[in-house]
């Protein structure tokens, strides 16, 4: 085999994307080895996180590609560095994004550490993203398939990780990935994409969360203070949510659906209002903490694009203030359901610049919005 391009450790998850990433790297002349990373210990219920099925599929793919497959268990690290923080955020009334934490704290550090121990120069995954190496450092770029772009989840990577990273699917459309995998005879070419959070799997979110956090029931109120019912716990709800509120007909309120527009954590009240675009759901800015910049801090006031959730179309924005651990952002158009705990990620053209964790939505004055 032509090994002129060096050795790469590919994170094989059992899905089609990582399988084709490995196949493409083999075709490009790399020496390829796979690593299956187990990040969660399943309970006794079948199909919980599907790690066994994923491992079997990764093993089958590795056999077809004729590459070694290593297996490592990072469940203890995942529990302490991702899941514990996930629970802390929900207990505080925020809505965290564990995929961002996992990539930053577990997946890429572990891949890189494994690669070095095996004498490999590179690591690779099936993420839809691209990396460009320049004389000034490595840049993270959005994928060609905008609908699959995953740079939102990768903004926390550092220069060391990006310098070693390969993203073979950055220029591919998902439809072409499946077609090529089928042509290569890969058994997972039509396997359903994984969605949601691995450790929750197909479980109902409320049932899962109640196993780890104690729910505190409280009142469901309108912004004016009218009590409409009882909620089972603030942790089960997020801003903009419509389903599962349990609000029937409300006298004098009409038939428009109700949405979560705020959480009064001090009073343990869930604030709801009618209308998908209620004013309390729209914000012209936000404050965010723990900023991470991939290749230099952007200038205050410079025109940028940003998104506050995965797959949201890019929005025109400007950073109006940056401190050591906090920044403020203004949007050209109001944003719906700015959610504390989620991340805002910034872009200039195709380049992902970095991001920060949303602390609060802000009003025109720049102060945090009321409940």
TrEMBL record:
It is found in: Cytoplasm. The active site is at 102 (nucleophile), 198 (cysteine persulfide intermediate). The record marks 127, 342 as: Interaction with tRNA. Belongs to the MnmA/TRMU family. This is tRNA-specific 2-thiouridylase MnmA. It is an enzyme of class 2 (transferase). Its EC number is 2.8.1.13. The keyword Transferase applies. The keyword tRNA-binding applies. One of its GO terms (biological process) is methylation. PANTHER family: MITOCHONDRIAL TRNA-SPECIFIC 2-THIOURIDYLASE 1, TRNA 5-METHYLAMINOMETHYL-2-THIOURIDYLATE -METHYLTRANSFERASE. Residues 206-274 form the tRNA-specific 2-thiouridylase MnmA-like central domain. Catalyzes the 2-thiolation of uridine at the wobble position (U34) of tRNA, leading to the formation of s(2)U34. Residues 284-358 form the tRNA-specific 2-thiouridylase MnmA-like C-terminal domain. It comes from the Bacteria. Residues 97-99 are annotated as: Interaction with target base in tRNA. GO terms for molecular function: ATP binding; methyltransferase activity; tRNA binding; tRNA-uridine 2-sulfurtransferase activity. One of its GO terms (cellular component) is cytoplasm.
